[in-house]
Design brief:
single chain; alpha/beta; Rossmann fold; Histone, subunit A; Helix Hairpins; 3 domains; five-stranded parallel sheet; about 55% helix; about 10% strand
Length: about 290
């Protein structure tokens, strides 16, 4: 296997410096940088989600940044399909795929394979989301516990996304998500070899970088980005709960623009969100990667 057959995976918490390492690898090995961040895949909030600026994109090919509309929903399975196409294109062209991101589930799905869960019809997903919204998480979790005690015990009662997923799979297939997860995973091509690179900093330094990066973002137009997306939400073109709205800092800045929160408070909340997320990422990587 030549060096160009290796798929590099660069992962770590937000603001840790992954992009610099990706550019370095790309320059050394004729690399194609492929996004594995669940927020950067959307064509919205480019600066707020820390998508690579134009000068970085000019240094190496970048794929799957801003690749989906903000009203869409990207699952780990869907991302894996998109990434697989880009990886295979790069390998055929003699280039080195460099996967970069902090969305651990995306990376695990790519490297370890995928549980063979059948697709959930859109109408069942919509009904499930409506039920969760009507009940609220505690009551929704209680109902899930009656239907699927195994999954309910595994899940945090406040984890909306995973509660909805467990419910919709049960409704669509008649079997618990735990059953599907117990089956052998759909594997990765045998000729793929992954080389992982974990980027991390001292916890105090990482938090300082999170704070400083957000302050820099405030000087480069993120309020305009948030305003543009909020206008799409208010016009009905993007759902209020679209995945892209979970971008770090979006909700505090949206609240500020709507007159509900002072700017300094919005910035402080956004910085706290970012630090908390970095901490969760570190915990996930330590346990899963």
């Amino acid at each position: 296997m030549s060096i160009k057959d290796i798929i590099h995976v660069i992962y770590g918490p937000t603001a840790s410096g992954k992009s610099a390492l990706a550019l370095e690898k790309a320059a050394e090995q004729n690399g194609v940088i492929i996004n594995a961040d669940s927020m950067q895949i959307y064509d919205a909030l480019h600066t707020l989600t820390a998508q690579p600026p134009a000068d970085e994109k000019a240094q190496a090919p970048h794929k799957l940044y801003g690749a989906m509309s903000p009203e869409e929903k990207c699952s780990a399975q869907h991302w894996r399909g998109l990434a697989t196409i880009e990886i295979e294109k790069a390998l055929v062209q003699g280039q080195t795929p460099i996967i970069i991101g902090g969305t651990g589930l995306y990376l695990k799905t790519l490297m370890k394979g995928l549980s063979p869960v059948p697709p959930v019809p859109d109408e069942i997903r919509a009904q499930t989301m409506a039920r969760q919204a009507a009940l609220g998480n505690p009551a929704f979790h209680e109902e899930l516990a009656e239907k699927d005690p195994v999954m309910a015990e595994k899940l945090n009662p406040n984890d909306s996304q995973r509660l909805i997923r467990a419910w919709e799979v049960l409704e669509a297939t008649g079997k618990s998500l735990a059953y599907w997860q117990s089956l052998p995973r759909e594997g990765v091509p045998e000729d793929w070899k992954f080389e992982t690179h974990f980027v991390n900093l001292d916890r105090e330094d990482l938090y300082e970088r999170c704070n400083t990066r957000f302050e820099k973002m405030m000087k480069t137009g993120i309020l305009d980005e948030v305003r543009a997306l909020d206008e799409l939400i208010q016009s009905g073109n993007v759902p209020a709960d679209a995945p892209v709205t979970h971008a770090l800092g979006f909700h505090p800045l949206q609240a500020h623009l709507r007159g509900e929160l002072a700017l300094d408070e919005a910035i402080a909340q956004a910085q706290q969100e970012t630090r908390n997320y970095a901490k969760r990422q570190l915990t996930w990587f330590r346990n899963q990667m």
